[in-house]
Amino acid sequence: MIECIDKGFYYSEGTQIIDAQSISEAEISALKRRNGLPENKNLRENTMTYQIMMAHNLSAVPGKMRIKFDALISHDITYVGIIQSARVGGLTKFPVPYALTNCHNSLCAVGGTINEDDHVYGLSAARKFGGIYVPANQAVIHQYAREMMTGCGKMLLGSDSHTRYGAMGTMGIGEGGPELVKQLLSNTYDIDNPPVVMVYLENEPKNGVGPHDVALALVKAVFGNGFVKNKVLEFVGPGIKKLPMDFRIGIDVMTTETACLSSIWEIDEEVEAYYETHARPEAYQPLHPGSLAFYDSMIRIDLSEIEPMIALPFHPSNAYSIHELLENPGDILRSVEIESAKNFGDNLQLKLTNKVQGNHILTDQGIIAGCSGGMFDNICAAADILDHSSSSERFDGIGNSYFSLSVYPSSMPVSAALMENGVLLRLQKAGVVTKMAFCGPCFGAGDVPANHALSIRHTTRNFPNREGSKPDQGQITGVALMDARSIAATAANGGFLTAATDLEIPLQKMKYHFDKGIYQKRVYFGFDKPIATESLRMGPNITDWPTIYPLAENLLLVLTAVIKDAVTTTDELIPSGETSSYRSNPQKLAEFALSRRVPSYVRDSKRVQQLELNRLAGNPPEEILAVLRLVTENPDQAISKTAIGSVIFANKPGDGSAREQAASSQKVLGGYANIAREYATKRYRSNCINWGILPFTIGSEVEFDYKSGDMIYVPNIREAIQNGVEKIPAKIITQTDIQEIILYCSGLTVDERQIILDGCLMNFYASKKDLASEK
């Protein structure tokens, strides 16, 4: 079904795959000559990835890229912080098209006026700086980008991890807000040349198999082993032509869950027709690998062998075929319960084995929504399955039992097309609730299931509590990811888990009509038309960042969270859902940091922060002086040069969302560092650096048997960062002894080192601005 091959390959003339280990240098030279390529041609540059990235690269240093993006996009729980930070750095106008969508806190149902205050701020910022403003319920962020901003050969940076537009010929990268701040201030996205993985698609999916089935099978194959981490996935092969655009898009958006950097697909007439349909024919241009291209590794996917899939809690990679689950439901569901007890304790264990009824599994809720599920073809397919099932005696609509099904089209144009062709009416007549374009079900702000419910969703993620449950209040639910087709089949079967392939229902291909006038009548298009006199409209929840200090000569770090899970998600570091309403208020938001994983973290970090505030006020705490007496010769002198801060240990933090607040909330609470064995994603590590949090790692062989309250003394850390020293000796002070440890801070660029020295990215740009004004 899916084969991962960890060695290099050449792809010749778009048809032949050549094992790089099976071909000699002389044969490679002959291939180059036959294809009219110079002998010294770097064949990695013939990939579509490098064709695009090199066209956007300003660096002259081999192996290093400094990327300028064509456009930027953010949603309403990120753009306020980004623009506020950019203002500190001297923002006067948006240098490239920057779209501000309002698809997360769209309901304006939490915190009184604060959600709509953010939206009003967004419109005023679009007017003042020359941006694009997409009002609430018009579109989810990535659907708007697909419809209105992509183009073959372009690069787009978004402050959301699912910024993936490879199927449209656009390289999308999702990062934390500070990376967008850099672009807004006409700086670059700096990255080492990434490896490129060929994803070779062949054959055709079975009827009833959808894009989420392919995507979940891919995530299962590559996430756990890190096969594509921080690499670019490049989709080629004859199977592409067998997939309509929505199918490709549905696979592509889920590549985020593989931990890859970005994605790109070979372009054909389907893409050309897509841009014609969306009244942007100029956005199309041919895009293919060069006649001979080199790939670092390969994933081979036989689409005909993909089965309907289900990803059980608590990760998209925890995937099984639906048939496999139904054949052994007790053991598989019990494994989820055990994982739940491990994470939340026996008193809050998710109960799933009680969903097994004979040879069936009864689910409680179905959702088809967002940038992966709410696509035109998915919703049409769901309607076909429910319609066909209604002709049988056993299905008479969704019914009035506990199971419910809701559908959220991904944009107003998609919704309008589904109204025009009658699909929404057909769904409503079957008992389905149809709703607006809204990301809520994907991040915990809408359709939160009942306690201990099992919700099946065609959305992007199923991390713990991401659906909105509150474990501190005794709540827990489970989300399983499935394709819209099998969700509809399950709905047609009374909520009993069913693979769409079992129903053998023919799915018709319906023509899509895009009405651009919907956006023209409502969206504010202000790019290149800034109104400098416009005032930003600031609600009471929109606050400036607190003072952040430069890095001190030495650090005394206090462990305030030690997390031994294999992977820690950004949802655990800072929850989503209604908590997101406070992202415009950094100090209020920080109150929720790690609240669902380490409830004591905020309290303990604040206590440490108060020690530092006392030190800065000239009142060095005696307990800190006592520790310094153990590790320094002159504690009274050392205290003036030693900052006190909190530190988190986690094995592999940062999987999932691009949210910068997973790092900034630590900083607001006085965090100075993280210690990890590795970082789950490049974007989370970048967020840490941009907020002045030292991204320490330790060797895989090092036992980290320490607990909250233990301290780590890092002498001469400022000098080490300044000089690019990567191996940093430190001392761990426990209640019983003092131990040596080596911390690594590897691969920092010159700018990243200065950002950490200055305290954060805002300080970095503020100091540049001050220097410029002095000149």
From TrEMBL:
Domain annotation Aconitase/3-isopropylmalate dehydratase large subunit alpha/beta/alpha: ranges: 52-488
Domain Aconitase A/isopropylmalate dehydratase small subunit swivel: 647-698
InterPro entries recorded: Acnase/IPM_dHydase_lsu_aba_1/3, Acoase/IPM_deHydtase_lsu_aba, Aconitase/3IPM_dehydase_swvl, Aconitase/IPM_isomerase, Aconitase_4Fe-4S_dom, AconitaseA/IPMdHydase_ssu_swvl
GO biological process: tricarboxylic acid cycle
Keywords per UniProt: Iron, Iron-sulfur, Metal-binding
Single GO cellular component term: cytosol
Record-linked Pfam families: Aconitase, Aconitase_C
Domain of life where this protein originates: Bacteria
One GO MF term: metal ion binding
NCBIfam families documented for this protein: PRK11413.1 (NF008503)
UniProt-recorded name of the protein: Aconitase A
Organism: Flexilinea flocculi
Upper lineage: Bacteria, Bacillati, Chloroflexota, Anaerolineae, Anaerolineales
